[in-house]
Structure formats: C-alpha cells, structure tokens
Design goal:
The protein has helices at 3-19, 29-32, 69-77, 99-116, 133-147, 166-182, 195-198, 201-206, 228-239, 262-274, 311-321, and strands at residues 36-38, 41-43, 53-57, 83-89, 119-125, 153-156, 190-192, 215-222, 244-250, 279-284. With 322 residues, it is an alpha/beta fold. The chain has one domain (22-320): Alpha-Beta Barrel (TIM Barrel), CATH 3.20.20.80. Strands 3-4-5-6-7-8-9-10 form an eight-stranded parallel beta barrel, surrounded by five helices. It has a two-stranded antiparallel sheet with strand order 1-2. The relative contact order is 0.14. It binds 2-acetamido-2-deoxy-beta-D-glucopyranose (NAG). The site of 2-acetamido-2-deoxy-beta-D-glucopyranose (NAG) has 4 residues, from loops. It comes from Rhamnusium bicolor.
C-alpha cells in the first residue's frame, strides 16, 4: 500500500469514526471518567474524544416540579442523555433572593446525576452575571468544595452574557470565578459564556483566557434563527483554537417559541457530530411553547416516553439515541 493511499484510509477512518454519534444513555461517567480538554476537543479519561448529549432543565424557579430524581432518571433512560443541565435561576426570585431553596434544588439534581452515572452542568443561569459576581463566587465555592471530587461535574459560570464587552467585563468575571473553583477543584471542566447570548465567540477567540486547563466556551443556537452564518463563525474560532461546548440549543426561535426548523436542526447535528462536539437541548419543559420537549402535564416519571413527547422532543430524543 502506498503512503498516500494509507493516508486516505486513515483520514477516511477518522472521518467515519468522528461523524458517528452514539446512544448517549450508554456513554456514562463510569465508562468515560474524568473529562479534560485537549486542544479544541473534550476528552475522556482514556484519552479518547467524548461527546455529551442531553437535556437542560427549565429555569428552576418556573419548573421546580422537574427538579427531582425522577426527572433525571427519565433524562438518562428515556431521553437517552448522558448529561443534564441544571439551569438555576439567579434573578426572578431565584438564587439571589432564595439561596437555600435554589441550593437545595441544585444539590438534588447533582446527586441524581451522580446516582444515574451521568454528567451534570451546574449552570449559573444568569443574564447579568457581572452584577452578581460575589454571589457567584460564593455559590461556586460551596459547590466545588462539596462536589469537585466527582468526575460528573461541569461548571457553567455565566449562562448568557448579553451585549457587553468580552475583554472588559465578561473575561474578568470568568477569571475571578475560575480562580474560586480551581482553589477547590483542579480539573473538572468549566464552561464560559460569551457576549450576545453565547454567539460572539470571535470576541473570545481574539482575546482568549490563557494559563487555565479544561475550560471551554459556550455556543448557544436556536435553529429557526441561527443558521449557517453561526456555524461558519464557530468553525472559524475552532480553527483559531477555541474549544466549544453547546450547553444550550433549541429547534425553534431564540424566544423558545415560533416555528420548529427540523431541516436546519439536522444541519446543526451533522456539523456538531462531524466536530465531535457536545450539545444540550433546551428544554426538559412542558410549557406551552415550541422549545418544550414534553407535552403539558407530563409527569417526571414519564418524561421522554413517546406519548409525552412534543414535535421538538421527538427530534431531540431521536438524535440523543443515535
Ligand atoms: C407560543 O406560540 C403559540 C402559537 O402562536 C401560542 O399559542 C402560545 O401561547 C405561545 N406560547 C407562549 C408561552 O407564549
């Protein structure tokens, strides 16, 4: 075999390998262990690329009836997920006003994820994180002390910065929260939001955080609004070396409602799988809007069972299973 043929075969094998996504329910923490970031790729403890696929819970304050063990059991087994995102509200009567209530909800989800052998994103679900830095540091200090030794944990320090400067405001915020987490937990992955609802990745690529291990930047997309232009932007920053994690995506509009664009969602899945990236759907919710994966009144024990899935839920669960 000549060397160019060999090279082609090796490339072909890797494309096939990388483009194949798996039933996420089977890709558990005991199989993949502690995560790390190598270049732009999320890796498992065996030094192999790993892809996480799963569900985000809805805002804790508005859907507390899904913040329990039964829902996380369903997310793992019936929604075919190896990750759950705990979107803990900060404003809107959330953590700032009721830290004990919200902490209890968060711990319930973390412990349910550990019991299910899946990963969990501890999400500081804030749009104004820079105004609540001291509360965020205190929260992540407590969480990383208590749970930092578990390989299940990923931290998301700031859900979606809106239209503020990366270099002047968002980056200093992240550096401060990272230092708090790293004083307790040296290695679990930390996910970092970027301006304009986690879409202006280029600002971060131009001025990345250096000298830190196991950090990734979050990309959020909603397929009925964010199309090829956003994939092109993301592909560019990957070329620049920025590791990306999709901690939230929807099949519809960014508002959470509007039309579902199944074809565009499929283009996103193709691109994500080719890049072996992780993605988490918004949301495990039964609200009357397009982004909800469950019909109204779905009991936690039945979440993601066929008869309780919405149009969006059917797309998402089929993809998680692939
Ligand atoms: C979403 O849109 C549908 C159809 O227009 C509407 O009936 C529903 O009330 C909307 N949901 C919310 C939460 O606004």
């Amino acid at each position: 075999m000549n060397s160019s043929l060999l090279t082609s075969l090796v490339i072909l094998c890797c494309i096939i390998n990388i483009a194949t996504s798996l039933d996420a329910a089977l890709e558990t923490v005991s199989k993949h262990g502690r995560l790390s970031v190598s270049g732009t790729q999320l890796m498992d403890s065996h030094g192999q690329p790993v892809q996480l696929k799963g569900m985000s819970l809805f805002w804790s304050v508005w859907m507390p009836y899904y913040w329990n063990r039964a829902t996380v059991d369903s997310i793992h087994s019936a929604c075919h997920s190896n990750i759950v995102r705990a979107a803990m509200a900060i404003e809107y009567e959330g953590y700032l006003d009721h830290p004990d209530v919200e902490m209890q909800r968060m711990e319930t989800i973390i412990e349910a994820a550990i019991a299910n052998d899946i990963y969990v994103i501890v999400d500081w679900h804030d749009w104004n994180g820079e105004k609540h830095l001291s509360q965020a540091k205190d929260f992540f200090d407590k969480i990383s002390k208590k749970y930092g030794s578990y390989p299940n944990i990923l931290y998301e320090t700031y859900n979606e910065p809106i239209d503020i400067s990366w270099s002047a405001i968002v980056k200093p915020y992240h550096l401060s929260v990272i230092s708090t987490i790293r004083s307790n937990d040296p290695d679990n992955v930390i996910l970092l939001g970027v301006p304009h609802y986690d879409q202006e990745l280029d600002q971060a690529a131009d001025d990345p955080i250096t000298g830190q291990n196991n950090i990734m930047y979050t990309l959020h997309f909603y397929a009925n609004e964010n199309k090829q232009w956003l994939r092109d932007r993301a592909q560019n920053v990957i070329r620049q070396g920025l590791p990306i994690f999709v901690s939230e995506y929807g099949t519809c509009d960014g508002s959470g409602n509007g039309s579902i664009d199944a074809a565009e969602t499929q283009l996103w899945y193709n691109w994500l799988d080719q890049n072996h990236m992780s993605y988490v759907n918004w949301a495990l919710s039964d609200k009357d809007e397009s982004a909800s994966s469950q019909i109204a009144g779905t009991p936690p024990e039945q979440a993601c069972q066929d008869r309780y899935l919405t149009e969006s839920g059917r797309i998402v669960v089929a993809q998680n299973k692939k």
